[in-house]
Amino acid sequence: MSVLFISTYELGHQPQLAAEVAAELPEGSLEVLDMAKTPLSVAIEAINRASRVILTAPMLTGALVARDLLASLDHDQPERQLIVVGLYATVLKESLQDPPAALWLNRATAAELATLVQHPSVSAQPGIPKATGRRAYRVNRTPLMGLDSYRSVRIANQDLVTGYLETSVGCRHRCLHCPVAAIWNGRIAINDAEAVIADGLAQIEAGAQHLSFGDPDFLNAPKHSLKVLTTLAQKAPWVTFDITTKISEILRHRDLLSTLAASHVNFVISAVESLNDDVLAHLDKGHTAADVSVARDLLYANGVAMHPTFVPFTPWTTMGDLVDIVDFIVESDLVQVVEPIQYSIELLTPTNSLLPVNETDFGPYDASVMGYTVRYQDERLPRLRDRLYQLAAQAGEDSFETTFAQIVTAVYEANGLSAQCVRTPKVSAPSTAVMSEPWFCCAAPAAPH
Ligand code: SF4
């Protein structure tokens, strides 16, 4: 038996689910094809010759790649078993005029996927959440491309080979715009700590100098995740880490920040989304604009950097919000850290979103972005969104500083302000580490539409 696993897009790291499925199947029976590294034509040829296929649709970018691939699928192969899995699986299906015969699973464990491909007669209930709690964590990274093929983290002018692991899946929170929340609905499952530690050590043995914890929120189960982190830091004190957590969790667990720092966590990715309290309330983010500065100061005081992510363009955005964001970036000494694309991201509202879709805030469904269009209060906003997207897209090899200067000019001019008014840093970031590939929490950039 041979199974083809096609990973569409995983934000630049190794496809974690592929490693977990490989561990559940007989050695050598899983072929992994990563579309982030493979031309579409090669993937089309591979999917049309395979009899058992697992295709991922983790978030919008991955779902768009999957859609391109499915458009070239040979429909005259009734024997082929196709499983489409990921948070966007059913959203992708709904966006297709003629969806192929497949199992569309918004979430499934590796063991469930392995059972389905080994015993195709076993039925699955797409989209029905299974029980959560503790779960085994088995990985086999042998069929994957090496760590040096994936994103690296640059710290102090050194590009560090970067690994990836997860102490948990799902999220306790229910931010209304979040695709994780739409599927997990406030639940999590904990990966076996000893197995995660063993995976981290194996990646370090394979050359990892930095490890990214990809839990949707690392502080969902802090005792558990910190056990993994502190053990790895003790066994490999030369390795640095990054984690992702909410602004409100940084505030709530402020007493744990010194442990993060002592364990060589270099930076914390946090979904700020907006600095407009009205927007934050609509998204039910659980933090205010004032909380963001407090969280930043707490992190910096402990010597840990902050990597904020944003969803600046929403139905409730005002023109002044963009000024607030670029000012915050300057004041926080984050110009070198925040990827230019972050300033142009628009709220995604797929059909399964927890956000109430009303006609005041949202327009018709747009299959090209697999969601409802945003209705803006100010007609200048979509023009500014497109301009910022264009600046980010054409940045190429330009430094973040160069592109940021153009973004500030565009934002200030659109608000009738002079770019001379730009403020100066109020605080110093403890580190200017950057990833070689941008990271999006619950969002994905979309070209102007
Ligand atoms: S935005 Fe982050 S914290 Fe909120 S539900 Fe999604 S993963 Fe959890």
Structure overview:
The strands form 4 sheets. Strands 14-13-12-11-8-7-17 form a 7-stranded mixed beta sheet. The protein has a 5-stranded parallel beta sheet with strand order 2-1-3-4-5, with helices on both faces. Strands 6-10-9 form a 3-stranded mixed beta sheet. It has 449 residues and is an alpha/beta fold. The chain folds into 2 domains: 3-132, Rossmann fold, CATH 3.40.50; 147-435, tm_1862 like domain (pyruvate-formate lyase- activating enzyme). The chain has helices spanning 16-24, 40-49, 60-71, 89-95, 110-118, 179-184, 193-205, 222-235, 247-252, 257-262, 277-283, 289-301, 319-331, 380-393, 400-414, and strands at residues 3-7, 30-34, 52-56, 81-85, 103-105, 134-135, 152-155, 158-165, 168-170, 188-191, 210-213, 240-244, 265-273, 305-310, 362-366, 371-374, 434-435. The model has no long low-confidence stretch (mean pLDDT 93). α7 packs parallel to α8 and α13 packs antiparallel against α15 (400-414). It is built from 15 helices and 17 strands. Bound molecules: iron/sulfur cluster. Iron/sulfur cluster (SF4) binds next to α6.
Largest sheet, in brief, is: 7 strands, mixed
Distance between the termini: 43 Å
Radius of gyration using CA atoms only: 21 Å
CATH superfamily of the largest domain: tm_1862 like domain
Per DSSP, the total helix count is: 15
Name of the CATH first level of the largest domain = Alpha Beta
Mean pLDDT: 93
Helix percent reads 25-40%
Strand order of the largest sheet: 14-13-12-11-8-7-17
Beta percentage is 15-25%
Q: SS-based structural class? A: alpha/beta
In total, the number of domains comes to 2
The 3D shape can be described as globular
